[in-house]
Amino acid sequence: MTESSKRLKVFTGNANPELAREICRCLGIELGQSEILRFQDGEIRARNMETVRGAECFIVQPLNYPSAEHIMELLIMIDAMRRASAKQICAVIPYYAYARQDRKTQPRDPITAKLLANLITAAGADRVVTLDLHAGQIQGFFDIPVDNLRAIPIITEYLKRKQLEDVIVVSPDVGGVVRSRELADRLNCPLAIVDKRRPRPNYAEVMNIIGDVEGKVAILLDDMIDTGGTIVNAAHALIEKGAVEVYACCSHAVFSPPAPEILQSSPLKEVVVTDSIHLPPEKVIPKLTVLSVAPLFAEAIRRIFDERPVSKLFD
């Protein structure tokens, strides 16, 4: 580290302690000691079991289901460290909850992604590190630095090792074209787009495939898979259009029911995700491949602590 007087500490909530431990292993440090308890009425109590005075603290806590619990754990841990005189507090949020509520789509709608940003800032966080925000403009909801890391380089390296031939990257909707085009450029292959309409939340109907997928290995890329309907409908449409195999890749395996079942029974050859969200055994299916983002977050933490550019991680 750059200064012997500086101290780096990494803590975790209950959302994904396995990822936090792996990040610490990559950093060559021990995971910070803390405890999170529940009172009889369900209220949360977080306490640091070691001093954080003058330390630069990083709290690893994705905000997946149950998001209310995990959000409160994060806010309380930030407050506890602020009151214990931590020098800097960085919220490491591999999955940012409420990211799909980033704007008003109906009269009197809340903008919950902005509300959550306000809460994290008000609790005392000095910085946020996250992964593949659903909407990039959420970075602007914060008045503190935000590093929005990307999983595409990790996914790219995995796909290259598979040595697939006649590949085409497919965006499952128009909104994901920029993300999919980057993967296509990295794989040096063409791009196709699924034209769809969404009559109601968590339901999508595929309308058309823009691009020639006949005889090709199609790779669907999205930032998250929630119920799985979008990806599975797209996979069926691609097979009908002549694709020989279909793979699905995403950063965040939300996997709300019945996602595991419909993904396993779908025409998808493989579902590639990261460990930004902890998957319990009932959500792990034979088709699933989980790539670790721990080295990526560890390097981001190391660079922030050493006061070096984080932008190198986007290459």
Could you please describe the fold and organization of this structure?
With 315 residues, the chain is an alpha/beta fold. 29% of the residues lie in helices and 27% in strands. It contains 8 helices and 14 strands. A 7-stranded mixed β-sheet has the order 10-9-8-11-12-13-14. A 5-stranded parallel β-sheet has the order 1-4-5-6-7, with helices on both faces. A two-stranded antiparallel ribbon has the order 2-3. α1 packs across α8 and α4 (152-162) packs across α5. The longest helix is centred in the first third of the chain and has 17 residues, at 67-83. The protein is globular and about 60 Å long. The chain starts with 7 loop residues before the first strand and ends in a 10-residue tail after the last helix.
Structural class: alpha/beta
Arrangement of strands in the largest sheet: 10-9-8-11-12-13-14
> How many distinct helices?
8
Major beta sheet summary: 7 strands, mixed
Helix content: 25-40%
| Residue-averaged pLDDT | 94
**Gyration radius from CA atoms, angstroms:** 20 Å
The 3D shape can be described as globular
Q: Please report the distance between the alpha carbons of the first and last residues.
A: 23 Å
* Uncertain spans: none
What is the N-to-C order of secondary-structure elements (H for helix, E for strand)?
A: EHEEEHEHEEHEHEEEHEHEEH
Strand % is 25-35%
What's the number of extended β-strand segments?
A: 14
